[in-house]
Amino acid sequence: MFAGESIRRFINSGFSYAIKRKYLVWCSGLAQNEYLSLLRTTSCTPSLNYITAVHLRSYDYVPAISFIEASSVSSPSNFLCGKCVYKRYMSSASIELKTDSDVVRFSISKCPYKIPSSEKGKKPTKHVKMSKKAKLNELRFYRLKAKKKMNSPNPEVRIRYKLEKAKRKEAWLIEKLSKFEVPKLRAETCDPEMLTEEEKHYLKRTGEKKKNFILVGRRGVFGGVVLNMHLHWKKHETVKIICKPCKPGQIHQYAEELARLSKGIVIDIRPNNSIIFYRGKNYVQPTVMSPPDTLSKNKALEKYKYEQSLEHTSQFIEKLEKELEEYLEHVARYKKGKEGLPQITIAEA
User: Fold this and answer.
1) Can you say whether the dihedral through the CA atoms of 98, 102, 105, 107 is positive or negative?
2) Helices 223-232 & 250-262, crossing angle to 10 degrees?
């Protein structure tokens, strides 16, 4: 009985001084005895909440903070109904009063939420780098694995390995080419200049006779081509664009692209892959002669190399797919012919 009255007085009174470790142990023993006596007399089911502790590594005096709160306790004899009970402070841990299996015990558990600490400014741990020897061993392993597939006696294994490697390269080239795509600027609205047939004929003859020309090579249309067009139009009305090398139908794409970038007028497209451009009657040289939505000379060359590689890789993939299909048809015919032959036993022979 003394233990029950003591624990009630201890909990209900509330206090503002710190508790030492030995008093916590004494409190847990008294709470266990009191709770067992309450279970025998009443049928209440206490629901206890706990408040987690903050980081303090001392038992010195601090303001009183509630440790155990009785949220819903039925029956006249309320259990642990005090306003606050002081708690032990510790790092990233909390004290919890557990009442399961008819036993009252204090337990130290991890904090249910993250406690703010001074570790925010710390950098994340770096991954351990592989040594040079480990990297060489890994590369050697993959080379031996690829060599085994390349020297396989089965033709299907060899073809499938080459096909898989070519498709990986094709995906890589498409990803690289996507980086060279420049967003097109909104086209400026301008009144198209109307030219009569006589003017077109005169400009065509003038453009053919004059020797000023610009060569569009493997780089295609880039900022330097448009810049040279404006420099030619400074002294000449027309300029000839020669496209070499040029695929069938590509000359018309070049003509549309150059007309959009330079605001010039296409006079004639010759069968020898040459275009004659007219600067216009009301031509004014722009302040920025190289448009911002074009590639530089180096990037245009790099793009051309990736495009060539992608074209050859696509052709190689088509060739491998055709070879694989023919090989599978050959295997199917061989199996079918083998099944159709009559089986000759040793006795018949």
Assistant:
1) negative
2) 70
Neighbours of 45 (CB within 10 A): 11
Residue with tokens 């039925």: 74
Q: Nearest-5° angle of CA 69, CA 73, CA 74? A: 165
pTM, to two decimals: 0.56
- 69 secondary structure, DSSP code: E
How far apart CA 131 and CA 115 sit, in angstroms, is: 38
50 phi/psi in degrees, rounded to 5: -135, 155
Task: Give the integer Cα–Cα distance in Å for 91 and 119.
Answer: 13
The DSSP secondary structure of 160-218, one letter per residue, reads HHHHHHHHHHHHHHHHHHHTTPPPPPPPPP-PPPP--HHHHHHHHHHHHH---EEEE-T
Q: What is the C-alpha to C-alpha distance for residues 85 and 310, in angstroms, rounded to an integer?
A: 75
Tens digits of per-residue pLDDT, 37-66? 544 554 444 444 443 444 444 444 444 333
C-alpha angle with apex 121: 120 to 125, nearest 5 degrees? 90
pLDDT computed for residue 126 by the predictor: 67
User: What would the 3-class secondary structure string for 214-250 be?
Assistant: EEECCCCCCHHHHHHHHHHCCCCCEEEEEECCCCCCH
41 φ/ψ angles, rounded to the nearest 5 degrees: -90, -35
Tokens 């600027």 locate to 185
Strand order across the beta sheet in which 213-216 lies: 213-216, 238-243, 274-278, 265-270
